[in-house]
UniProtKB/TrEMBL annotation:
<feature type="transmembrane region" description="Helical">
    <location>
        <begin position="146"/>
        <end position="168"/>
    </location>
</feature>
<protein>
    <recommendedName>
        <fullName>Zn-dependent protease</fullName>
    </recommendedName>
</protein>
<feature type="transmembrane region" description="Helical">
    <location>
        <begin position="200"/>
        <end position="222"/>
    </location>
</feature>
<dbReference type="InterPro" id="IPR007395">
    <property type="entry name" value="Zn_peptidase_2"/>
</dbReference>
<keyword id="KW-0472">Membrane</keyword>
<keyword id="KW-1133">Transmembrane helix</keyword>
<dbReference type="Pfam" id="PF04298">
    <property type="entry name" value="Zn_peptidase_2"/>
</dbReference>
<keyword id="KW-0812">Transmembrane</keyword>
<feature type="transmembrane region" description="Helical">
    <location>
        <begin position="122"/>
        <end position="140"/>
    </location>
</feature>
Length: 228
């Protein structure tokens, strides 16, 4: 039976995920209209914080799209979307500082980030095979394949769980950087918290969905073994 009572919880978690994504775009749009007191662009803030942390060699590049901002650990590059790169708003400098937070994590070999990088090749492999194993196990009632699929899928779940402290830590660093450098004043902290908090919620929701899906597969596997 493909349907399971836990599907209801997964559906709720999926709804939370959609709501979180809505909040990300909503908060970003709202605080994009509020100019930062520093008057600096996201690119200038990113460059300043990188240089203050001895990361002069890390470039800040423009990337297409909206909310496509990220730190590339392979090329060691901070990439900012156009609204963030050129923007002088609370939202722009918050996102820019967050991505720089990842670059500083990389320099300092932040434990969760190091583990995440080491897991990536394994997760890239297992996440591609897990759906095939799970589906085949369900259709043909091959619980050995289902069990293997669960093991492979658990790597992806672990990867998402490890991502949480990485993202929360980067946001914490971003706020500390901006306050220490005088890039925001106390009255602007609310906007920074809104923008970064909404983004963090999307990672929490994604992790929750994955954990619930994994538990569903485990319960089905256990029930199948009991019936045999």
């Amino acid at each position: 039976m493909l349907f399971h009572p836990m599907d209801f919880l997964i559906f709720i978690a999926f709804g939370i995920s959609l709501w979180a994504q809505f909040r990300v775009s909503g908060n970003f749009n709202e605080w994009s209209k509020v100019p930062a007191s520093s008057g600096l662009t996201g690119a200038e803030v990113a460059r300043m914080i990188l240089d203050r942390n001895g990361l002069h060699h890390v470039p800040v590049e423009l990337v297409r799209g909206t909310l496509t901002d990220h730190y590339d650990p392979i090329s060691r590059t901070v990439r900012l979307s156009e609204p963030v790169y050129y923007g002088r708003s609370i939202a722009s400098i918050s996102v820019a500082a967050h991505e720089v937070g990842h670059a500083v994590q990389h320099k300092q070999s932040y434990g969760a980030l190091v583990l995440r990088h080491r897991m990536f090749p394994i997760v890239n492999f297992t996440s591609g095979i897990a759906p095939f194993l799970l589906l085949t196990g369900f259709i043909f009632h091959q619980f050995s394949l289902l069990g293997l699929g669960i093991i492979f899928f658990s790597f992806a779940v672990a990867f998402q769980l490890i991502t949480l402290p990485v993202e929360f830590n980067a946001s914490s660093r971003a706020k500390k950087f901006m306050l220490a450098e005088g890039l925001i004043h106390s009255g602007e902290e609310r906007g920074v918290n809104k923008v970064l908090g909404a983004a963090a919620l999307t990672y929490v929701a994604a992790a929750l969905i994955s954990v619930l899906e994994l538990l569903k597969f485990v319960f089905i596997f256990m029930q199948g073994n009991e019936e045999e």
